């Protein structure tokens, strides 16, 4: 494995876009930050500076929130639901038409393999927006028969209306920047809300590009505002802001808790998608042809920088050795490389800090009683590459098995012929509850175990099934509320009940 990764250049179209100014998008205008601050954006595969973007501070957040507030009551509010849906369909088309540009920018700022970025845009981005566009014409309230003590039957009418909640502040992480932005934008637009979107300081470019596409689609100025900035400055100002009605946050559990505190001022509504440490439970009758690639994909997708990652494997003692051996052989054969390399299946971690954090956990694992089965090293030279790492014989007393690592590290532990409840108790022994999977051909065991896993999502014979229609979100400290699906509209709506006495 060569130390210095080969360089793969982006297309001239992408280079031309990167050469642009990258200011804040507020009220349809591209404006510099009030402070003049610029944030440098680096390619994690080469550590080279890609470009700089304006870095928003509290004054810019004030301007963006004011623009979103004005737009909420403007032209946008007067569109029919059909017109709003049509703008969203156009936006979805533009996302797909610009796949190559979006993917190259995402690969450059985040590091993920190009094929994963393209797959996300083609199979998820456009469809996610279209799925929510389909709801626009179907959001409605109901009529409610009231108790005769309130009004005699036939002499009153009570009905509910579903109204947009207002100005949404969205704060997103860097691990899948394009998908994260899209999954905040789609329900915002579907419900008639407006948004101030703050991308992660490490990956601000795709969000700015999406903001341009939203404008091109004809979405009125001020509906979509994009404000790159640091968490402590822009993120904190947005979550404290009295002009924001709702925060939708994806990121670490620690920051999620600080957002709850910051939101107390005006009691804005909050939804949180936070960390995970998801179990992947393998019974001895499972189809090993599916288990092994499923576990590798589940754990190392996005280099393990994935909240749903299958980081804790529970494997029955009878099949423990062949499963771990198969996984270690497959994962050990995956060579991390630059995402723009067409053959790349595993990219770098997002930053030097993240690599060092992950390597800290790996060193901790090596010093424990766990068996290192593959990986365990960062690549020397430029780029934040870490080899896929598998630890066998772990247990829940180990830090690597308990804490969210957010890197390419899988921990495998064995179970014997114990009761399902006991296996589930181990699987549930973290502060998280986001995802999980059960692998067996026995439908009773499968459904019973799926019922026992304490998480917002469980898959059987696959891991982390994702579709715009499948509700997604966490139990315990993995979050508040659900995104995706019909339930994903709820946090963006409020109900008004109206009663008339005839
Ligand atoms: P982070 O939670 O600090 O960053 C996520 C977003 O929150 C970014 O846009 C950031 O600017 C913003 N932010 C940071 N501090 C804020 C504050 N005080 N108020 C408002 N917004 C704020 O995540 P970070 O530091 O980049 O990653 C650290 C660890 O967090 C990772 O190693 C991983 O364990 C976890 N994480 C989990 C994610 C998930 O989806 N489950 C996503 C990102 C990080
Ligand atoms: Mg942080």
Number of helices: 16
Instruction: Provide the β-strand percentage band.
Output: 15-25%
The CATH topology annotation of the largest domain reads as Aldehyde Dehydrogenase, Chain A, domain 1
**Compute the gyration radius: what is it?**
24 Å
CATH homology-level superfamily of the largest domain:
Aldehyde Dehydrogenase, Chain A, domain 1
Q: Structural class, from helix and strand content?
A: alpha/beta
Largest sheet: 7 strands, mixed
Q: Into which percent range does the helicity of residues fall?
A: 25-40%
Protein described:
The strands form five sheets. The chain has a seven-stranded mixed beta sheet, with helices on both faces. The protein has a six-stranded mixed beta sheet with strand order 9-8-7-10-11-19, sandwiched between helices. The protein has helices at 12-18, 58-73, 75-78, 81-97, 99-110, 114-136, 177-191, 205-216, 231-240, 253-262, 288-300, 320-332, 352-367, 399-402, 420-427, 443-452; strands spanning 24-26, 29-31, 38-42, 49-54, 143-144, 156-164, 167-171, 194-198, 224-226, 246-250, 269-273, 279-282, 312-316, 371-374, 389-392, 409-415, 437-439, 459-460, 479-480, 493-501. β3 (38-42) and β4 (49-54) form a beta hairpin. It folds into two domains: 12-274 and 480-498, Aldehyde Dehydrogenase, Chain A, domain 1 (3-Layer(aba) Sandwich); 279-467, Aldehyde Dehydrogenase, Chain A, domain 2. With 502 residues, it is an alpha/beta fold. α4 (81-97) crosses α8 (205-216), α5 packs antiparallel against α8 and α15 crosses α16 (443-452). Mean pLDDT is 96; it is low at 1-5. The protein binds 1,4-dihydronicotinamide adenine dinucleotide (NAI) and magnesium ion.
